[in-house]
Amino acid sequence: MGGEGAIATGRRRVAGYRPLPGVPDEMLDKNGQVRPLWRNLVAHLDALSDEDLTRDLARADRYLLDSGVFYRQYGEGQSTERPWPLSHIPVLLAEDDWARIGRALTQRADLLEAVMADLYGPNELVASRRLPAALVAGNPEWLRPMVGIKPRGGHFLHFLAFELGRGPDGQWWVLADRTQAPSGAGYALENRVAISRAYSELYPDGNVHRLAGFFRDFRDALQAQSRERDGRVAILTPGPMNETYYEHAYIARYLGFTLLEGDDLGVSNDRLMVRTVQGMRQVDVLWRRLDGQYADPLELNPASRIGTPGMVAALRSGAVAMVNSLGSGVLETRALMAFLPQLAPDLVGAPLAMPNIATWWCGTETARAAVRSSPRRMVLADALTTHPPFDPADDLTRAVTLSPQELDRRLSRQGGDLVAQEAVTLSTTPALVEGKLVPRPMTLRVYLARTADGWAVMPGGFARIGSASEASAVAMQKGGAAADVWVVGRDPVPVITLARQAGSADKRQAASGLPARAADNLFWLGRYAERAEGIVRLMRAYHTRMAEAGAAGAPLLAGFDPLLRQMGIDTPDPIPQKLLDNLAAAIGSASSVRDRFSPDAWSALHDIDRSARRMARTVSPGDDAARALSALLRKLAGISGLVHENMYRFVGWRFLTIGRLHERAMGMAALLAVLCDPDAPEGALDLAIEVGDSVLTHRRRFALNASRASVIDLLVLDPLNPRALRHQIDGLREQVDMLPAANDHGALSPLARDALRLHTDLATAEPETLTTEALWALRGRIANLSDVLTTTYFH
User: Fold this and answer.
1) What residues are paired with 437 via a beta bridge?
2) How open is the CA angle 557-563-566, to the nearest 5 degrees?
3) Using CA atoms, how far apart are residues 713 and 719, in angstroms rounded to an integer?
4) What is the pLDDT of residues 228-258, one digit of tens each?
5) What DSSP assignment string belongs to 719-742?
6) Residues 674-723 pLDDT 10s
7) Which residues pair with 286 in a beta bridge?
8) Contacts of 606 (CB under 8 A, 6+ apart)
C-alpha cells in the first residue's frame, strides 16, 4: 500500500512521533520509517487539515453517541454508563501476519478443547500428574457437577477470545485465554462501523477484510445445532447492569437471536424453556454471557440471583446446546499457562505455534528457584485468578519490590497459591492525543468461532490502547481506549454481508416467542412515554395560563392541584421532577429490551431526557416554560412516530401500544373527572379541550362555547378523536383481542372479557350519565386492566 511519495507526505503528521526506547512500534520500523502497511493511512491523515480531521473523526463519535454505545464503569460502590472509548487511529496488520496468528490460535483453541474434555471427562492429565490436582480441585471455576456431562454436538468450546501482546523482539505472545464468556465482539463491530465513517474516503478501497462473514458463519453454525425446525437460539445475559450489556443486546439484534435473562428461563422435564406470552417454549441453543457458576443456583452457586434452577440438568439430558460449556472458566486460570506448552505436543501433536507469556506455578521448587534467581523480571499473582492481564481487579506484586527474605518467605509459605509471570513490555501503536500522534501500549483481542468448517478467525477484533505509557493503563476501567483492527490485503477484498450464502434456504423464519419480561418492559415503556407526554401537556397549559392571566388566573391555576397530585407532582415547576423520573423509567424499560428497540428511538429518548434535564436548570416559569415544554412535546411526538410507524407489528408492538393506550385512557379519565366537575373553576372546560389537543376539532364540531356535554362527547365518546377515551378503549380492545390466547375458539380470556365489557359500556354511554363519579369509576376499571394483563402474561 503506497510508495515513497506516501512516506514523504506522511512526515508532517508523524514528525513529532517518537517510539519509546527499546519498545517495538506498530507504525514505525526500527529505523523510524513508516512501515509500508501504514503509508496510505499516514498519507491520508497528512492530507487533511486539522479542521477536516476533526470533522471526520467527529462522524465516528456521533455514530457511537447516536447508537447509544456505552461501557459500564464501576467505582466507589456505583456504576455509570461511560461513552464507548474509541481510539480514532486503527491498528493495521498485514493479512499474511494475520494468517499466521490465526493458525497459531486455532491450534491453541484445539489444545484448550482437549484440556477441557479431559478435565470434565477421564481426568488423565491430573492422574498422570501433568496437571497439579490442586489447580483443578481447588479451583472455583472447575464445576464438579459438570463432570461426565458430554456436550450436545460433541464440543465444549465454541466461541473464544485471546488477549495478545507483542514483545520487544516483535514476537506475539498470548497474554490470556478468554474461554468463559468472551466479551467485545459486538464492540469490534461497532468500532468498525464508526471508524469506516471517519475514514469514508480511505476505507472502501483500503483492502480491509470485512467482519460480517465471521458472524454469519457462526450464526449459521448455531442455528444448525437446533434440533427443531424453528428452534430457538438465545443469548443469556446477566442483565442491564452488566458492564457489557450493550454488546449482548447489540449481538442479539445483529444476529436475530432472542436476548434472555435467567428469570426468563425455566426447566421442565429436563428441557430448558423460556417463559413467553405465548406460553413456555423450548430453547435449543444458548449462548451464555454470564459466568458458569452463576448459571444454576440449584447445583452450582446457591447465592446466584441471575441463573436458572435446573440448567445443569437440562445440559445433562442433552436437551440444550450451550456456548461455551459450563465450567470452561477453569481454562482461564492464570497458572494453567505454565503447563500448556508441555501439554501441547501430546494433545495437539506439536509445540505451541505462538507461546504464551512465560509463566511459573510456584508449587514446585524448580519454579520457586526461577523466581528467586530473576525477581526483576517476575510478577507474582494469585495462581487461580482468571482476570485478564492489566485488569483493575488484578492483585499483582512485582517480585523485585520484595526483599529477598520476604520473597523467600512468601514463596515458601504460599508457593502453591502463587504464579509468577514475566513482566511484559508491550509494543506501541499510534493514538491521537490532543491532535497529535503519540505511541501508546497495545494489546490485541482476537476472536475464534466454531463453524461448520472448523474454527474461524475474525479478520480483525479490537485493540485495547493505553491511556498512558504504562502497560496497566490499557484496562478500560482505567481509562484505556479501544481501536479498530484492520487486516489489510494486497488485493481488493470481497464485500461480505450477513446474508446467508448462496444455496441456503431463503424463507421467512417463524417469529420467536416474546419473553414475558420483554413484554412487561414494552408495556411499561409505552406507559412511561405516554405519562411523560401527559405531564408535558398539562404543565404547558399551566404555564400558558400563568403567562396569560397572571394573578387573575389564580382560581384556574388552583384547579390544577388535583391533577398535579394525581400525577405525583408536588410543585408546579416548569420541568417537574416527576417528568424526569418518568423519562428515566422509560429509559430503564427500553434498556431492558435493547435488542428489540429501534436505535433511532433509543437515541431520541435519550435526547429528550437530556433536553428535559437541561431545561430543568434553565427554564423560568410562565411563557419561557410554555415554549420549552412545546419543544419537548414535539420531541415526544417524534418518538411516537419512530416507534409506532416504523416498528414491526409483532406481538411486542402490541404490548407497547397497549401500554400507550392504557396510560392515555387513564390520564384522560382523570383529567375529565377533575375539569368537568360541576365545581371546577371557570375556564376548566377550555383547559380540558386544550390538554386533550382538540381545540380545532371542538370548534368545527360545536358552533358554541364549550359545555360539559360537548367536552364529554368529544373527549370521551367520540371514536374518531384520537385523544378521546372511546378511541383508546377501541384500540385496547382491538389489541387485546389479537394477543395470544385472547380468544380460544370463542372462549375469551379474562382480559379480553374485561376489555369487551368496558368497550360495550362506553360505546352505549350518554354524556349525561358520565358524572364525575362515573368517570372516576371508569378510570378504576381501566386501571384494573393492567392488573389482569400482568397476571395473564407477565407472571
Assistant:
1) 432
2) 150
3) 10
4) 655 689 999 999 888 889 899 999 999 999 9
5) TT-TTSHHHHHHHHHHHHHTSTTS
6) 999 999 988 899 999 999 999 998 988 886 788 999 999 999 999 999 99
7) 234, 322
8) 68, 587
